Amino acid sequence: MEALLASIPDHAKDLKLNLQAVLGETSLTAAQQWGTALACAAASRNAPLRTVLDREARARVGDAVAEDALAAAAIMGMNNVFYRFRHMVGRDAYAQIPARLRMNRLARPAGSRLDFELFALAVSAINGCESCVRAHEKTVLEGGLTEQQVVDAVRIAATVHGVAVAMDGA
Q1: For site-directed labelling of 134, which of 31, 77, 145, 148 has its Cα 20 to 30 A away?
Q2: Residue 32, domain CATH
Q3: pLDDT of the residue at 56
Q4: How distant, in Å, are the alpha carbons of 11, 24, 44, 58, 157 from that of 6?
C-alpha cells in the first residue's frame, strides 16, 4: 500500500490524502469499505491500483468479499452500458424489450447481498448510469444502510477513480 501511495504523482497530492482518509475511518464495515475500493479499482481499469487493492482486500476481509467486488465491477460494466443506453434514449419501446443478460451473481453473491449491492452502486456511480445508481441506492437503503454509508461508498468510488486517472497520467 505504501508503494501505491508513493506512486501517486505530486499533482494529485489531494487524492493521496483522500485515499488514505477513505480507507481509514468510515461508517462502512471493513468488508463494505475494501470491497467498494476493489470494485471501483476494477471499474477504473488501472491494473497497478487494482492489484494493490485486490491484495489488501483479500488480506483484510477475505476472498469472498474480493471475488464479489470483482464480480460487481464486471456485471456493472455490462449493465451500466445497457441500462444507460435505455435511459439516454428514453424510448418506451426499449424498456419493454427484455435485457436477456445474465446476472446470477447479483442475486447470489458469495458474501453479503447488501454489500454486493453497495459495490454495484459505487461502480455505477463511476460509470455514470443514473438508472443503476437509483436502483442500487434504493436497494441498499431499504436493506438498512444509511445515507451516510451511501455517501461514504461513493466517496471511495470518487477517490479511487481519481487516483486511477492520476496514475494513468503520471
Answers
A1: 31
A2: 1.20.1290.10
A3: 97
A4: 12, 17, 19, 21, 20
Which residue out of 39, 132, 145, 154 is catalytically annotated?
Answer: 132
Q: Are 85 and 73 in contact (CB under 8 A)?
A: no
What is the value of pTM for the model shown?
A: 0.95
Residue of 52, 129, 153, 156 marked active site? 129
Instruction: For residue 129, indicate whether it is catalytic.
Output: yes
Query: How far is it, in rounded angstroms, from Cα 115 to Cα 148?
Result: 15
Query: Is 132 marked active-site?
Result: yes
Tally of domains within the chain: 1
- Which grid cell sits at 98? 427484455
Distance in angstroms (rounded) separating the CA atoms of residues 11 and 167: 10
Question: What counts of helices (H) and strands (E) characterise the chain?
Answer: 10, 0
For 84-135, write each residue's pLDDT tens digit: 999 999 999 999 999 999 988 888 999 999 999 999 999 999 999 999 999 9
